[in-house]
Amino acid sequence: MKSICLLRLSAIGDVCHALALVNVLKARWPDCTITWVLGKAEAQLMAGIEGVELVVFDKKAGLKGMRTVWRQLKDRRFDALLHMQIALRASLLSLGIKARRRIGFDKSRAGEGQWLFTNERIGLPKGQHVLDNFLEFARYLGIEDPKPDWTLPVPAEAVQKAEQLLPQGKRTLVICHSASKAERCWPAERYAAVADWAHDQGLKVLLCGGPAPAEKALAQAIGDAASAPVRDLTGQTDLKSLWALLRRATVVLAPDTGPAHMASSQGTPTVGLYAHSNPRRTGPYNHQKWVANRYDANILAQTGKPWQQLPWGARAKGEGLMAGIGVDEVIAKLKCILAE
To answer: Which CATH number covers residue 113?
Structure first.
């Protein structure tokens, strides 16, 4: 392979899984030119990967953003395009990327007509997880038994910021409280109850999140409900600094959100809170055993079928589902992690 283009625009968690594949490809073909088309925020996190060209697509710019990418790649023809996103927007963007081999998902997982935009398709992976799906691209290209590698360069200033926030030797619980949809967030008073328990165990508690008003409001509500002090860093860390911070944490608590995958991919024990999506598919890859899982019960109640009999991406729907996860259940998992 002389040149490969990856098309995986978003989201942060999925891009973390794509990173694991990128490093596999680099190791197998060190002289191969790797180009990765991805979103603006995602490019900020992935910046600096040696030997990988990042081409940024601004989805807010619509067709204009697509044309910008097409112009940047107009004189390029790749040996292979790895089309790793089923969204129709991504498929339309792929039309302006020239490649001899256009490899996508198998038909059972190629939603939104993605199979119409490819001429080759990977097989079904052995595992259920999104990352298992991504690694199947490596197997399809002839790489036997690919091992995920999440190596990511982090600037010295981001590392220094993390060191200042989390001094060496201080046990810390980092709560990444928000998800992309409000219904996937845990209630503020339950986060606060866990924070109080952690404080009683001698842990420092940090709240992390993005700058969106809803995320700041949830952090404020957690702080107001907690009896013990918590440090609120919501909106105060960029993605590189957050990556470095999560690496230093003792344990992370998060719903189905990008920082959960950022933490788990670095080996930081991560307790995931899942009620809407199947954690076997989208949970913290390296810490599945610590997931608080209400998805199985919810999807069975809504469909009358166990998750094994449903399509791969089936989600439970509705508000209030996260309330099915109890404080005691989460504390029990944290106790096991701290004991280890």
So the answer is: 3.40.50.2000
